[in-house]
Design goal:
This protein has about 260 residues and is mostly helical. The protein is built from seven helices and no strands. Helix 2 packs antiparallel against helix 3. It is rod-shaped and about 195 Å long. It starts with a helix and ends in a 6-residue tail after the last helix.
């Protein structure tokens, strides 16, 4: 008995795409579980399931498959040449030439050819399916290895990125620390310079005040000296003035008077 793709998916030939997808999703996990347990029949059924779904899920492939399927169900027509055999009976000749006889002969011939083709095809399909299962297993193993490699690569990249970020943070801290130290030194220098400048201004002001006091003292000493001198010379001046009024020049010169 030949199973169609619809039989494998357990759906009606009139089923829509959603029903086909639902059937495929329902059947595949069971076959995968059995195939992973080592069932060869499950592996073959899984390959048939994949092939049936790939055909019926595509509108173009499904249309071609339905057309071929309808042709296989139709009765084949064969042209048979009529040979005359001297020993044949009239009944045998009429039976072979009748429509029923032709259909029966064609059916037997088709059944024999189909059985041989099916036997050869099944052996070839089993080899192909076994090879496909091995290829699929290798692909899955390669996919797992690739995923592991990508995960390791991503882990290495993330680790390197974290390390680089840590180095950048350390460098930032060092730069900030050096900048803070430079700023503190600059502020201390400015503060010291300002203090020194204020001290210099204070010293200049104090020197100016001392100079002013000295000048005042000098002026006061000179004033006192002048007053003392004037007080000491007052009698002599009076005597000289009296000589000058009297016109006594000789006595004035003798007394050391000077004409002013």
């Amino acid at each position: 008995m030949k199973y169609t793709h619809y039989d494998i998916l357990q759906v009606s030939p009139k089923a829509n795409l959603e029903v086909i997808k639902a059937a495929y999703t329902h059947i595949k996990p069971t076959l995968l579980t059995a195939a992973s347990g080592g069932s060869e029949d499950a592996k073959n059924q899984l390959l048939f399931l994949e092939e049936a779904y790939s055909v019926l899920s595509s509108p173009e492939k499904r249309a071609i498959y339905d057309a071929k399927l309808s042709d296989n169900f139709a009765s084949p027509s064969y042209h048979q040449s009529i040979t005359h055999v001297d020993d044949e009976s009239v009944f045998s000749t009429s039976w072979r030439e009748s429509t029923v006889g032709r259909i029966l002969i064609a059916g037997i011939f088709f059944a024999v050819v189909f059985s041989v083709y099916k036997f050869i095809g099944q052996r070839g399909e089993q080899k192909i399916q076994t090879k496909q299962v091995e290829i699929q297993a290798q692909r899955e193993i390669g996919s797992v290895q690739n995923d592991s490699y990508r995960a390791e690569t991503e882990r290495t990249l993330v680790q390197g990125s974290v390390q680089n970020q840590g180095n950048l943070i350390d460098k930032s801290y060092d730069v900030a620390s050096r900048e803070a130290e430079r700023r503190r030194t600059e502020l201390e220098y400015r503060a010291n310079a300002g203090t020194q400048q204020l001290e210099m201004q204070r010293q200049r002001q104090e020197a100016m005040l001392q100079e002013q006091r000295w000048r005042q003292e000098q002026y006061e000493k000179e004033r006192q000296a002048r007053e003392a001198k004037a007080a000491a010379e007052a009698p002599k001046r009076q005597l000289c003035n009296m000589y000058a009024l009297n016109g006594n020049t000789r006595d004035a010169q003798a007394a050391g008077c000077y004409r002013y």
